[in-house]
Design brief:
Elements (H helix, E strand, L loop, with lengths): L1 H9 L7 H22 L6 H25 L6 H14 L5 H13 L21 H22 L7 H33 L4 E2 L3 H30 L1 H6 L8 H34 L8 H9 L4 E2 L6 H11 L5
Antiparallel strand pairs: 1-2
Length: about 325
């Protein structure tokens, strides 16, 4: 990446092979993804995640201004860059919250993911919560993109550059909402697993607890993404351009409606499961907390998750978000 940037400085940027730069950037993303995959396999990997965060933010800080410059001539260049950024690097991060949660809970409960006893003794002192580092990585990288977009408009731009920046902010809004949609679809997949199995119940109790933990982190990520997206129109107004071109406005609106539909679907699903939980526990009527304990410690190998009131309100807050 540094070599390409030095070459850019020695050439006028319109003459520099932008496609070569694009391919090199995608290769950097793939290498960083491989590094991330190795980092989360380690028991203590917060330092590795922090290193990855610094390197990735540096890559974005250098690459985004150049990509925006080239998008003046090619209006699809930045959107293709964002698509590859999502597909190669960001979307694969989302399922790791559940994988790490399940692995860590199994470790802390002295059992591996299939329910066998864990050899040796594990203590809480051996445990490092890598999910905090993963969430910080996600937040810092997306914040860096927003900062790079803002810094790219500091100089007085031409009319073509102004139009390019409007498209850039529109593409960034689409990126954020697309990622929210990916997260909610992932949540739907892990919350709505209704299958019953004859396998030992203990690993599925661990999995249910891991899903509950994952909900907290993914909800935090979704609210953070909404906050970033809410600032996108303000970023565009600062550049004296219209709020969004009709193409991006339509895509943004459709994505917001899709997000709301999935959020409502998740709430309705939990309504049915919570009602069924109380119906199946008639002796627990009037003792709400005891009912949930009964459902989370029963002997069946149940995969699906019943959220408590606080977790349920987290989903409800997403569903209540207006489509503006």
């Amino acid at each position: 990446m540094d070599t390409f940037l030095q070459l850019c400085l020695r050439h006028t940027r319109p003459e520099f092979p932008s496609q070569a730069f694009f391919v090199a950037t995608c290769q950097v993303f793939r290498a960083l993804h491989a590094y991330f995959e190795n980092a989360i396999k380690e028991t203590t990997s917060l330092k590795a995640l922090r290193t990855l965060q610094i390197v990735l933010c540096s890559v974005i800080d250098r690459a985004v201004p150049l990509v925006i410059f080239w998008s003046i001539e090619d209006s699809e260049f930045l959107s293709l860059f964002f698509e590859q950024f999502l597909e190669i690097l960001i979307i694969p991060i989302i399922p790791t919250f559940l994988a790490v949660s399940e692995r860590d809970l199994a470790y802390l409960n002295h059992a591996d993911p299939v329910g066998n006893s864990k050899s040796g003794s594990a203590t809480s002192f051996d445990y490092v919560d890598r999910r905090v580092g993963i969430l910080a990585l996600l937040q810092s990288v997306l914040t860096q993109i927003q900062s790079s977009l803002l810094l790219a408009v500091k100089p007085a731009p031409s009319n073509a550059a102004v139009d390019s920046m409007a498209r850039a902010h529109g593409d960034f809004s689409v990126l954020l909402l697309s990622l929210i949609l990916v997260i909610l679809r992932h949540l739907r997949g892990i919350l709505e697993d209704d299958s019953e199995t004859s396998i030992k119940p203990r690993p599925y109790r661990i999995k249910r607890l891991a899903i509950k933990d994952t909900l907290w982190y993914l909800s935090s990520a979704v609210h953070f993404l909404f906050e970033l997206e809410d600032r996108v129109p303000c970023m565009i107004v600062m550049n004296d351009t219209e709020c969004l071109e009709s193409r991006w406005r339509t895509r943004v609106t459709l994505l917001k409606y899709a997000i709301q539909d999935i959020s409502i679907e998740l709430v309705l699903y939990q309504d049915r499961k919570r009602a069924a939980a109380f119906t199946a526990s008639p002796n627990q009527i009037g003792t709400e907390d005891a009912a949930w304990v009964h459902r989370e410690t029963d002997s069946r190998a149940r995969k699906y998750v019943i959220l408590d009131d606080l977790e349920y309100r987290m989903l409800l807050r997403l569903a209540e978000r207006p489509v503006s």
